[in-house]
Amino acid sequence: MDLLAALALVLVIEGLAVAIFAGSLPEMLAAMRVTTDAQRRVLGIVMVVCGAAAYLAIRG
């Protein structure tokens, strides 16, 4: 059940980001197009590590 709650929170946060930054979303997407696969992969890994560290700090 905690996993479903966490996934629901992700949807809320992502939805808020899209709603708040709707005007600059095309620019952000264009910026993502010029990054390499390796840069996006590193960003994803950094986000996973930060999220896991935050989770462990909060729930640990």
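^ that was protein a. below is b, sequence first then the tokens
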Amino acid sequence: MRIVLTGGGTGGHIYPALAFASYIESVDEKSTFLYIGSSDRMEGEIVPKTGMPFKNLKVKGISRSLSLSNIKAMALFIQGVIKARKYLREFKPDFVLGTGGYVSAPVVYAAAQMGIPTAVYEPNSHAGVANRFLGRYVDHVFLCLDDTRKYFDEKKIIMTGSPRATQIALLLENEPTVIKPYEKHILCFGGSLGAKKLNEAFVEALPLLVDKSYDITYVTGKKYYDEVLQAATPYVRDHIHIVPFVDDMPTMMRSADVLVARSGATTLVEAAMFGVPTIFVPSPNVTGNHQLKNAQSFVKAEAASLLEEHQLTGQSFVDAIDQLMNDDIKREKMRQAVSALAQPEAAVLMYEAACKLKKGE
């Protein structure tokens, strides 16, 4: 099968596409891929390193008010559609998948207009602008959360989950156990770049953490590491581990008894697949406040607890952790609830849908 992948701007749009491709390659050695994205965005750095062919498309986000910037964005969209048609005619894909971000809009739209089977993947509770627009034209909409159904035509929806979950399932199959470095372990991180507010709360919490019986690994993000380490130095003990970045996050998450993190779509998938009770601290600085909605969907299932950023202090940070670490029964119930949300067959379902579209079913 020949597949075009498109999506970008953030890791949440890029890595699911790559996870989908990884699964297909494992079951179809003859499959070929083309990734269409913006060379000056994150995908322009990440995708070429995988060896996947990459084509550049220049796009611009649309603001919510009438402006010259929006006129330019529309002009770039039209140009993008024309260029995407050229790429699609040359590659001749059997299927096109958009995983979000403005760059996906002209590509998937062009493919749909050309009669090529198409789908979009939406992992968040609040659907992104590009996917809401494309939902009118695609054959299928792949979703992770029931709360997102309201944005799309019910007839097009397939509840798949994230292809990242399938990657993790294969990891767990090949490495069913992991050696825990600590008897009781808290893992806390604010995403790949770190989170300033979370870092500030951690520093404020340090005097309260020095006498705790559990180990805590705190990931600052490279940008904030020196600043946090300097502030934390008087309180660092053997059970407090401060690092700028974690290269092997799957192993680290598997060793955690409790996770404290933002509630981006990828983190939700990983928490569910690894069965980690989680305290979500949603970022308020995202489109449609979708991280809060993501977290609320897990809280509703009793699969996580919620600590909003406006409630975040050193004391509330420690209190939230202690509520779970001091209650084995609650923690186990949450572990079971979050594990029940795992969707390890996601990439399989997406691939099956693509194959049926190719056959005209």
